[in-house]
């Protein structure tokens, strides 16, 4: 009997050990990745790297200015497109919990959230690129906006749902019009949640490559014209990493570190917003 | 204050108009999200019509994919997708469940748990192109030397390498969901088991896991959905060949990676349309998996 | 009745199929304080929310009958105008947490897009806070968030916010039930002052409070208006047995 108990306790202990072991082991690849990207990336990053264009094969040096600006522009326009739609959609869903439309809208948002990014690229190719006859940064932004939309809708909906209904009633009872109540009272009260949803959405799509393959396409030159193909950091990393040239690999390592830092920063900002700007009731 | 009465009334008429516009634009946007998704599906269906008409079901079990001679059988990619995804799932499950149990049951709080939680979030945040890049330069040589030891052709790239990368990438989904589900197990249930003299392991095994079963299952489903649709990391390390892989160490292609590689090169209508049909299949499968996963979570959390 | 400001005629209210206010007929005279009382769940809040059309915001809620404000049916006016004329104070204080005290008071104007000069705004804020007996306590912290105030102060802020719009009627739904006794008595004092300019309808399940503050009292029971009379008469000489039972505390 005593032995049996010891056996059972031992089993319990070893299970715990196993769980801890696997949990710790799982962080190992993450740190390996961070380690490599930082080690390989940091030596290539300097001022010239940030402000120069990539050099042709065979020449050393060169930078990623086109991809950096391109990424910022593409993501910026994606956010500009997705934020109003996302917030309005979120307001609609938080306000209409049981309607027929909200059921189907919610399902659509789930579908969009689960759609593989490469499929988004295909569809936007047929919607924008083919009719316009050219790859363009704009089509890339639209593809990324489609990917941001469900994240913003959902975070807005969840945030606003948690606000007490007395707040809305206070506004309406004062004779305020519905849109003012929603936009000037309810939305500001949920500001931290909505904002962190937006930043999270930006962080998610900033590193997306697949939807840009057939839309923004990439461009070795510098451009700010959103009706033209445009380079972006993820595209540059993909193209240069899979190329056979060492100089290009170096550019890709540097770009990967920059991209990683950018995304890390966005994630940290998300955390701070959620904590900081919470409105007290 | 009489003045205010007049201003109030004049202003209010404008606000009433704005209110109407606002309400209808809310509805309009909700409809447009619905229409967006319908149009997504419709676009995929219409654009893959040529291939559906020309190839029928043969598309799914045809063993040869050779655009040069206009033969489009996607069996190699379906196989590649299933192999990489399920292998990845198999590798990731011990890790994600361990994390879920660790954070949900053993140590919900504490600095190490905070650290682990952040690490998991970070794994989800790293872009897939960076995983692919790292895999190509770090993991591929490692796998190659492993393959030499095993005596198989040392490609380095291939199904196995892709699965490893995918496994890392999908851990966070099952882990974070599993953690939430495990934390929802009522303390009273666990206490009842403890009072009968059960050990911690037995409580986890007999009470926690059975209770959180459907939630854990949903997490695995969502991970699978991720793995099936993941493109860049896989494209970079799978080898991109349309030959049917004979072992998990062979190079191959997944549905997503073949689209990524060949879409911009597809010149003929049938070629392009076959790729889009792949996209359609991928879309439908991931959507169904995701919706089932979400339904399971909803059922579990509202019970 | 002379000087009737609000008249409800055969008024019914429903939540889905649940009939919670039944055929209520009630005339409310100007510049009076009307107490509405009755056991919990008898439809007091619902009736009050029907007066300024807040009831219809709840999904599945319906109304029937007439609610005449100065002989004009509020159900044929736009809700925004109704609510400008009939202000409301809720059971729990609910100042807008994103706005300062000042902006809370002026919110009815500002968020309605009414452009008024700074001096006018200041005047409205000051006089409303004066009327709500809050001015002296907050005049030095007008630009702090309203949520930093105590519960009683928050409730007075909500009253100031409502009366800043110069309504004709002010509805108060158990305005003191979430407050401590000291805050409660300061709000009750305030009601006496407000009576000069406004008609007040106050829901309370506290009989002493009804007796202290009101000119007339309405007694609701299971959705029906059982008795409606001058407060003094009602408390000394109730006509209905159910009123009698309630007043003597035989059910609550
Ligand atoms: N939001 C609601 N949805 C459905 N029924 C409600 C709702 N609010 C109140 N009721 C019902 O209406 C009846 C009257 O409620 P209420 O007017 O709040 O009573 P009182 O304020 O007198 O306590 C109650 O029986 C209650 O169950
Ligand atoms: Mg009530």
Main sheet overview of chain A: none
Helical stretch tally of chain A = 12
Regarding CATH, which class of the largest domain in chain A? Answer: Mainly Alpha
Alpha-carbon distance between the two ends of chain A: 58 Å
Quaternary organization: heterotrimer
The overall strand count of chain A is: 0
CATH topology of the largest domain in chain B: MetI-like fold
CATH topology descriptor of the largest domain in chain A? MetI-like fold
Order of SSEs of chain A: HHHHHHHHHHHH
Annotated CATH architecture of the largest domain in chain B: Orthogonal Bundle
Helix content of chain A: over 70%
Q: What is the top-level CATH class of the largest domain in chain B?
A: Mainly Alpha
**Total number of helices of chain B:** 11
Query: Which homologous superfamily in CATH is the superfamily of the largest domain in chain B?
Result: MetI-like
> In angstroms, what is the radius of gyration of chain A?
24 Å
Q: Extract low-pLDDT stretches of chain A.
A: none
Biggest β-sheet description of chain B: 2 strands, antiparallel
What percent of residues of chain B adopt helix (DSSP H or I)?
Answer: over 70%
By CATH, the architecture of the largest domain in chain A is named Orthogonal Bundle
Q: Could you say which structural class the secondary elements and strand pairing of chain A correspond to?
A: mainly alpha
What would the average pLDDT of chain B be, to the nearest integer? Answer: 93
Quick structural summary:
With 281 residues, chain A is mostly helical.
Describe the structure.
The complex is a heterotrimer of chains A (281), B (303) and C (252). With 281 residues, chain A is an all-alpha fold. Chain A has twelve helices and no strands. Chain A is globular. Chain B has 303 residues and is an all-alpha fold. Helices cover 79% and strands 1% of the residues of chain B. Chain B has eleven helices and two strands. In chain B, a hairpin with a 4-residue loop joins strand 1 (65-66) and strand 2. In chain B, helix 3 (75-106) packs parallel to helix 6 (159-183) and helix 5 (128-150) packs across helix 6. Chain B is flat, with a radius of gyration of 25 Å. In chain C, helix 6 packs parallel to helix 7 (181-194). Chain C has one domain: P-loop containing nucleotide triphosphate hydrolases (Rossmann fold, 3-Layer(aba) Sandwich), CATH 3.40.50.300. In chain C, the strands form two sheets. A six-stranded mixed sheet of chain C has the order 6-7-8-3-9-10, with helices on both faces. Chain C has a four-stranded antiparallel sheet with strand order 2-1-4-5, with helices on one face. Chains in contact: A-B, A-C, B-C. Chain B binds chain C through residues 1, 4-5, 7-9, 11-12, 14-16, 19, and chain C through 78, 80-81, 84, 112-114, 116, 166. The site of adenosine-5'-diphosphate (ADP) has 12 residues of chain C, from strand 2 and helix 1. The site of magnesium ion has 2 residues of chain C, from helix 1.
């Amino acid at each position: 009997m005593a032995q049996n108990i010891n056996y059972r306790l031992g089993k319990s202990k070893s299970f715990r050990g196993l769980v801890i072991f696997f949990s710790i082991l799982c962080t190992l690849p993450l740190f390996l990745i961070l380690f490599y990207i930082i080690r390989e990336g940091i030596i290539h990053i300097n001022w010239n790297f940030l402000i120069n264009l990539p050099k042709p094969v065979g020449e050393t040096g060169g930078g990623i200015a086109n991809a950096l600006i391109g990424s910022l522009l593409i993501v910026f326009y994606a956010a500009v497109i997705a934020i109003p739609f996302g917030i309005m959609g979120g307001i609609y869903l938080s306000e209409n919990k049981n309607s027929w439309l909200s059921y189907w809208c919610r399902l659509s948002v789930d579908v969009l959230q689960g759609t593989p990014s490469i499929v988004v690229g295909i569809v936007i190719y047929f919607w924008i690129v083919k009719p316009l006859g050219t790859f363009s940064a704009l089509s890339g932004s639209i593809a990324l906006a489609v990917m941001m939309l469900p994240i913003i809708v959902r975070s807005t909906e969840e945030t606003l749902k948690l606000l007490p209904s007395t707040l809305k009633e206070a506004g309406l009872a004062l004779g305020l019009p519905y849109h003012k109540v929603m936009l000037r009272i309810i939305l500001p009260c949920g500001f931290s949640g909505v904002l962190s949803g937006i930043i999270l959405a930006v962080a998610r799509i900033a590193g997306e490559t697949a939807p840009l393959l057939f839309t923004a396409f990439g461009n070795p030159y510098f451009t700010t014209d959103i009706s033209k193909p445009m380079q972006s950091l993820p595209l540059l990393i993909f193209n240069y990493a899979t190329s056979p040239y060492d100089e290009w690999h170096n550019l890709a390592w540097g770009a990967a570190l920059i991209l990683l830092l950018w995304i890390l920063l966005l994630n940290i900002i998300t955390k701070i917003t959620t904590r900081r700007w919470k409105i007290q009731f | 204050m009489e003045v205010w009465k007049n201003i109030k009334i004049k202003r209010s008429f404008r606000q009433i108009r704005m209110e109407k516009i606002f309400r209808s634009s809310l509805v309009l946007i909700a409809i447009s999200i619905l229409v967006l998704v319908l149009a997504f599906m419709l676009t995929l269906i219409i654009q893959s019509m040529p291939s559906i008409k020309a190839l029928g079901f043969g598309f799914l079990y045809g063993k040869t994919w050779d655009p040069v001679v206009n033969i489009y059988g996607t069996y190699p990619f379906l196989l590649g997708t299933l192999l990489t995804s399920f292998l990845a799932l198999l590798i990731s499950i011990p890790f994600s469940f361990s994390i879920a149990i660790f954070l949900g049951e053993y140590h919900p709080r504490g600095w190490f748990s905070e650290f682990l939680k952040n690490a998991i979030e970070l794994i989800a945040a790293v872009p897939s192109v960076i995983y692919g890049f790292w895999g190509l330069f770090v993991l591929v040589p490692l796998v190659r030397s492993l393959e030499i030891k095993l005596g198989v052709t040392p490609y380095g790239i291939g199904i196995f390498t892709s699965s490893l990368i995918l496994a890392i990438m999908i851990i966070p989904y099952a882990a974070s969901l599993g953690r939430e589900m495990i934390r929802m197990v009522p303390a009273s249930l666990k206490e009842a088991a403890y009072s009968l003299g059960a050990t911690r392991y037995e409580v986890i095994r007999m009470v926690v896991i059975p209770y959180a079963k459907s939630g854990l299952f949903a997490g695995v489903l969502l991970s699978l959905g991720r793995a099936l649709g993941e493109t860049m990391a896989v494209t970079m390390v799978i080898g991109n060949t349309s030959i049917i892989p004979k072992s998990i160490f062979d190079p191959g292609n997944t549905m997503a990676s073949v689209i990524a590689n060949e879409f911009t090169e597809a010149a003929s209508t049938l070629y392009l349309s076959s790729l889009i049909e792949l996209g359609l299949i991928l879309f439908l499968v991931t959507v169904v998996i995701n919706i089932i996963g979400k339904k399971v979570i909803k059922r579990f959390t509202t019970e | 009745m002379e000087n009737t400001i609000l008249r409800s005629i055969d008024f019914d209210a429903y939540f889905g199929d649940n009939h919670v206010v039944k055929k209520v007929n009630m005339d409310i005279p100007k510049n009076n304080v009307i107490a509405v009382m009755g056991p919990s769940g008898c439809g007091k809040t619902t009736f009050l929310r029907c007066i300024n059309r807040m009831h219809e915001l709840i999904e599945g809620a319906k109304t029937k009958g007439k609610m005449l404000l100065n002989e004009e049916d509020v159900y044929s006016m736009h809700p925004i105008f109704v609510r400008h004329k009939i202000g409301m104070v809720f059971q729990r204080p609910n100042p807008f947490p994103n706005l300062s005290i000042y902006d809370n008071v002026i919110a009815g104007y500002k968020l309605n897009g009414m452009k008024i000069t700074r001096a006018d705004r200041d005047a409205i804020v000051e006089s409303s806070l004066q009327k709500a007996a809050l001015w002296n306590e907050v005049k030095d912290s007008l630009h702090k968030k309203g949520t930093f105030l105590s519960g009683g102060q928050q409730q007075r802020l909500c009253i100031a916010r409502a009366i800043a719009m110069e309504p004709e009627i002010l509805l108060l739904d158990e305005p003191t039930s979430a407050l401590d006794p000291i805050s409660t008595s300061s709000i009750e004092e305030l009601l006496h002052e407000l009576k000069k300019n406004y008609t007040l309808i106050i829901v309370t399940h506290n009989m002493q409070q009804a007796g202290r503050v009101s000119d007339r009292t309405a007694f609701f029971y299971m959705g029906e208006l059982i008795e409606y009379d001058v407060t003094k008469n009602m408390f000394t000489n109730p006509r209905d047995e159910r009123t009698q039972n309630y007043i003597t505390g035989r059910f609550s």
